[in-house]
Amino acid sequence: MLAFVLRRLGTAIPTLFVIATLSFGLLHAAPGGPFDSDKEMLPEIRASIEAAFHLDEPVWRQYVRYLGQLVRGDLGPSFQYRNTSVNELIAQGLPIDLTVGGLALAFALLVGLPLGAVAALNRGSAWDRVALGVSLLGISVPVYVIAPVLVLVFAVTLQWLPAGGWDGGSPRQLVLPVLALAAPYTAIIARLSRASLVDVLDAPYIRTARAKGLPWSTVVLRHASRPALLPVVSYLGPAAVGVITGSIVIETVFSLPGVGRFFVAGAFNRDYTLVMGVTLLYGVLIVLANLVADLCYALLDPRVRLR
């Protein structure tokens, strides 16, 4: 197990190197610069600012300098947020994304798995049709529609919950963004778990277990639940990254100061280091989430060997 983890982490280094290289090349190849604006700037002032951020150097030298900073764990200074490093901006926004995303993923699992199981155990019934309809609605309606509707109903009309803001992460502030972010993932997990459980319940070994006289609850919980979870576990890798990094729409609608808003602001203002830092962060999260999903997959299915 340890050797597998170390090997996967070792292969992640070239992946992150390619991500850093591509993001650096694409951003520097795009027209414009971080200090271009409608207001004219004196050439002396522009030259002084570019020299302070080493933008007056050749691109290859900037690239080598950036790689050297990455090795030390330094993502560089932000061009837009003066006197603030990219590390500090990520440290400000990432805990918010982790909180909202983690709660959204937990909600999606706690609701989606039972919903899918109920639908699979009652195939063709009204419960099955209702579960499929609800999951289809969650997949079809985009987040940029769900979020404003939740605000309109629960914040404006009923006035039960605040419409937005962070306020230190109080529970009342978290309810609406968590529900809006979790809706599509809940629907997908419900459909995946239903389809997987239906396939497992039709397997020959399940019929054999029932023929031996085992109680139906024992068959489902001990023999069918673990293999039925495998597709869900495979989906949890990208899903975890999606909810943890958050949604730009969620952060905008509910005024959350997460990493996504910094990323958008950096893209509009050509803040090279900020965009590259957030892109690299997303790459690290994807690698780690997929690694955890692979480990969970091996624990659920003894046929998988981490060699």
Q: Summarize this, please?
A:
This protein is an all-alpha fold and 307 residues long. It contains 13 helices and no strands.
What average pLDDT do the residues reach?
83
CATH topology title of the domain at 93-254 and 285-300: MetI-like fold
Q: Span from first to last CA?
A: 8 Å
The CATH superfamily of the domain at 93-254 and 285-300 turns out to be MetI-like
Order of helices and strands: HHHHHHHHHHHHH
List the total number of helices: 13
Strand content: under 5%
Number of strands: 0
Output the CATH class name of the domain at 93-254 and 285-300.
Mainly Alpha
Low-confidence parts: none
Q: What's the overall geometry?
A: flat
- Tell me which CATH architecture of the domain at 93-254 and 285-300 applies here: Orthogonal Bundle
